[in-house]
Amino acid sequence: MLTRRQFLDTSFQSTSILSLASSVPCFLTRSLQAAEKKKKNGRILVVIELNGGNDGLNTVVPFKDDNYQKYRKTLGISESKVLKLNPEIGLHPAMKDAARLVEDGRLAIVQGVGYPNPNRSHFESRGIWQSAQLNPKAHGGYGWLGRALDQNSNRVQTFADSICLGDVDPPQALRGRQATPSTIKNLAELKFDLQSIDAEVDSDKNTTDDLLQFVRRRTVDARATVERLNKVKNTGSTKTRYPNNGLPNRLKEIARLIRAELEPRVYYTVQAGYDTHINQEFDHYRRLSEFSGALSAFLNDLRDSQLDDRVLVLVFSEFGRRVAENDSQGTDHGTAGPVFLASPSVEAGLHGPAPDLSDLQDGDLKMTTDFRSVYATILSKWLDINPQSCLQGHFPLIDFLPS
Amino acid sequence: MELFIQAAKPDHSIRWREYRPTKKTPWNLRRVVHLHRRAGFAATWNELQRDLQEGPQSSIDRMLNGTTREKTYFDDFERMSASIAKAAVRSNQPDRLKAWWLFRMLFTTDPLTEKLTLLWHNHFATSNQKLEDLSLMRQQNDLFRSLARAPFGKLLTAVLHDPAMLLWLDAPSNHKGRPNENLARELMELFTLGIGNYNETDVKAAARALTGWTVIDDRFSFRAAQHDAGQKTILNQRRAWKGDELVELLLDQRATAERLAGRLCQLFLGEGVAQSEDIKALAEGLQAHDLDIEWGTETILRSELFFADQNIRQSVAGPAELIIGATRALELVDPPPQTMILADWMRKLGQDLFYPPNVGGWNGGRDWLRTSALISRTNFAAGLARGQFSATQTPPDWSGFAAKQRRSSTPEDFVAFLAELLFGGEPAPGWIEGIAKRISSNSHSRDEVLQQAVANILASPEAQLN
């Protein structure tokens, strides 16, 4: 019987994959050709999506504003509970770890981030954030990071350009014309049961069948991914204590992949549960506490490995909630919200003007910063990618990263 | 001459013309396999041979009237199913309810209805994650099944009165003066019109029209005191809209018919097969037939488009299609498979029944092929070939399986037989030879070689297409 080692040898080191060149994404042939030329100095972006529409107003709280207390009769957070960032604004009491990150200079918060003519559909709004297009269907379904990695593709030498970790569909943000995302549920499931599989992907270079080509590419990609991860599995131990929850576990695995010198420059994960139409208080507390603890553990873990200066974390949600709470101690879909950026490299603290609670539109916040300015800043100052062609427009940069 | 010119006009509705075998599009094993995999969950060798003999009309008839499966393993399938469901609900174990549905997919004589039930579970995606009530989840599932082929208005009305749905979308907190927009928005965006056919003020007004709809004692109830009886403008029409009238209004819109037509095409046709003209033509027909799902389903299944070459093997097999299809086609039902284990494989393949990822349901298509899901597909193939999911966990007798269909079990013949059974023939020239060569090049026993053949074929990229 074929051993796993033999299987991998025949499947990946032989010419069988290279002979698939026409149907295999170039990252794989590149990574075989340049396996030894690891690029260790590249900067990494980790994206955390708070899915469901995070209540920004109860995350970064304008506790001194009379309007805030007026609109949030039951859900409002009082001055005594809030974690103050300045005399007017503070963080939700569940975010002690995040507050500490601000204190020691590792967390920046851009306020009032949104886009013109906000769409309150989860899917449309996610599409807008992920594609960086106000009409997400207009540009072939590609995402802002996918397009960015396309531009950068000659510099990435890896089995995938980005990795999405978690039990979710591949986010549009990572989809590019050439750039290929890998979606991994968790590292434990990435193991082949090879007792009876001698699974080499057949090459049939003559096929014109697009869909079958796609399946072949994904199959080769999946098998290559397993092979690489098995190599790094044991290098991934950490002393940092993470809370034992969904998001912390996923960030722990991402830290492991980063430590293992895997080449993708972009990692992506999702924390769900922010769609708080009803009895928001407890749910929101739980989510924010999980998020803030996970973020802090992740940064500390990377610091212990002396990798944290290579990593920037971007945290966004598809929209904020309505300013006024609804009748069921919850909040309905709204507009602008805060974006978080975490890294020892950021200029910590608040950035951008807060939205004005006395100047609402249909009961919703007016955005004060276009989300594409956040993206443009990350692309040009962190990933060193020209933002203009990727975002198809010029957006002023924000000062959360030093020039 | 004039007739010729007329025929040359681009009339896209002709693509819904009834399929009649021609020299170029004969009724062959490939098309029989296609019918069973798309409209149902694959077929056994005997069923394929029967339908090959009987021809398209009666094969499609069988699919539509629920007699396509030749053997019922249980004398009283419905009673058996009901008692499994009841026990699952009582146990309060979600995995047992998932297993119940897989039992139905595996053993019902009417796989088309189970397939449509799965479609509605995706269209009206409700998750037990929030509900935590297996009784209501089961009730909703039975509702999808009993109205799976009804006029869409009946199904939609029933779903909007279904306690699981109302609780899922927060209807009970939608009060006069303080509307909760969740139900109104998803009703317009996902269930009927689709994005682009309404605006924000429509959603707000629709939410007001739905005030007062609630759940009391696990049943739909209307609380008049909570209803906002004021004037509202919905889709440019101003009046004192009530919930039921809103539903009628939405059902009358062409956009709803088009969304329904699109959904049915998504289920039965492969990637890029239906053009927007086809969907419009189907939507027109649906409107003329009271949005009857049965009419739409039958129109598609009998059509030239359904049996066109471009539609065959042009969709990604979903988790249920892959798991149930392989188990059924390979007749791994005696000893019966452990449906709890199969349900867990469905989760690993990306479709956790009763737990859709969000209100939009599963994306499906190419998104089924996430990296970890693909690895699970490979591992599933290996486990199934070894007989790991049966109650006795004994390796299946693959040479006996071949012999039963009077096929030899030399590696090449066995691979050729499986290719016919699973794909309706060799997927590409040299494919059979390639697999046969690879599995016999390692010195195994005959049994192991056949086992490897099954695993390799099910794990191949070709087997991920339906």
From TrEMBL, chain A:
Q: Which domain of life is it from?
A: Bacteria
One protein family per Pfam: DUF1501
Instruction: Write the protein's name.
Output: DUF1501 domain-containing protein
Record the organism.
Gimesia algae
Automatic annotation (TrEMBL), chain B:
InterPro entries in UniProt = DUF1800
Give a Pfam family name.
DUF1800
Protein name per the record: DUF1800 domain-containing protein
Q: What is the lineage of its organism?
A: Bacteria, Pseudomonadati, Planctomycetota, Planctomycetia, Planctomycetales
